[in-house]
Amino acid sequence: MSDYINTEPMQEIFVFETSQLIEQLEQIILYSEKKNGLESQINEIFRIMHTIKGSSAMMCFNNISLLAHSVEDVFFHLRENKPPQVDYMYLTDIMLKVIDFIGSEVVRIKNKEESYEDPSNIIHLLTNFLSDLKTSRTGEETNRSAHEAGDADNNPGVHNYAYKAVITFEEDCEMESMRAFAVIHTLQQVAYGISHFPEEISDKDSCNKEIRAKGLTVRFCCRLPESEVRQLLEETMFLRELTIECEPVHADRESSEETEICLPGMEEDSTGKNSGEPAEADKLANLSKQNFISVNIQKMNKLMDVVGELVISESMVTQNPELKGLELEGFKKAARHLKKITGELQDIVMSMRMVPLSTTFQKMNRIVRDMSKKLEKDIVFEITGEETEVDKNIIEHISDPLIHLIRNAIDHGIETREERILAGKGEIGKITLEAKNSGGDVWIILKDDGRGLDKEGIIRKAIENNILQRPASDMADKEIYSIILLPGFSTKEEVTEFSGRGVGMDVVQKNIDKVGGTVQIDSNPGTGTTFSIKIPLTLAIMDGMTVRVGPATYTIPTVSIRESLKIRQNDVICDPDKNEMIMIRGQCYPILRLHKIFNVKAGTGKLEEGILILVESENESVCVFVDSLIGEQQVVVKALPQYIKQVQGISGCTLLGDGSISLIIDIASLIKSKR
Fold this sequence. Notes:
6-stranded mixed sheet, 5-stranded mixed sheet
């Protein structure tokens, strides 16, 4: 075995694959606890822990390997001996500790931190649990020994088996040599006399190509029967095909542990290579499989940036001012084709960045489970719409807000069992997490059937903290409820493990603001509370209406526009504070002049000479006054420099086809600033 193994890419793959396995394991544990019990998932849990044990041992992460080995011992005993009485609830608690430990260690490895935690406390729990299982058995050892003795009588002289295994990996799985190394390391735990082809395994491209083309062939002896060897090797990550040949090795053939193993079809030719190389995989079978590759998110972001530049370049070519007035039919035809191809490329890249909310949503199961147990509240947690997809960069910002909202719902919202009975409710509380698409946005709705928000208590606390911006009598219920999202606000007098420190709920608002989303709160006393979060599908590309205000151009998101209209001066009315307003179909809307808000020179000050655009956000509408409409187009959103981000009413910028910069208007922020 070559010592020349570059561990950096191996470590990245270890982090990626172990993270996936831990997430899968946590979902299995939580689902089993709620549904049919842990007993039904023993084989699956054993398989996952065996895989983690092998990969962590190979990477020399001994604390993870030792812990995984202890878990494997417990589930091996459960699988093989099937003890009649097992405290699966207690085992579930231990397994969640295991998951937390391995998860935190993987994060440390990912961040290249040197200090690793000691798992001895959890190992001690597992060891004691296994010891209790073994001492509670009655008569099982005797029965199994008699059975094994009978097998020996039926097959005298058979002590071992000689194997030839041929393993091929999934296409595009990458790092084939590392995966081959992991297989051999696994076999070293149970076998001897191991030889393999290729003979030298290293991270050189030549080795990877050879394994990719011909697979990994391994010959070895061990005491395990073929069924157990097959099960062991089938746990190999990214396994495409496995073939095994086996024959018994009798005592008279076991001269030493270095015995040369020779199976039918493995005779070597004059060149020293095996004549029985693995046959070609069944191509029809492979066509039915869907292949996946993992891609670094930074590469995806770079690709998105390049596609964005391509969109801008396409606009600069097709909208070049030098082409005005020219009749170029051939050019127009080519430009239309270029626009079509560019649009398709955009759609493909966007679809590659889209990921379902399921992983984020499923993580909330653990929050509900742990908090409901500690607070002694019975809660049913339902998830719907988890297949809804959003941009990868957005999904990273919504996990923390959801955690805080769910903690708030359990701690503040859901009553105790006794309180619910007194209120005439069922003893079991209910929390629902839902996601759904709506145009270019995604709605995430969290609903509980708890006590609801105390509107008077919120107002009283807001007055005490001097954060009430205007009289409560002038505020709608939604505005009053949204006060709980302000920094430092809390109505909870008692500081607990979960809330009451005056921090937390403002994290919701900050994270949602970062992705251009909004939060709405509805509540009914005694009935429950609903948090509705609206987030865009993506931050990278949007449809916008470009408008002109004096020398400047701005882009208004199309999803915020209800209509545009021309008016006459006598259509305008003024309130006592001389704020301009207009009646449209019996509804009164305030008028916001963009040139005043952004302090630019107006092209015209007369409302009848410009255009009013009726825009909406969070069920509130205003009319925005601009000089003229330039046109609607798909634009690539660029982030603003740090020193500009404080400008209220602006969310980003984009580059137009003529090379000029257009600021993107944040309608929600604009309306909020004018309340």
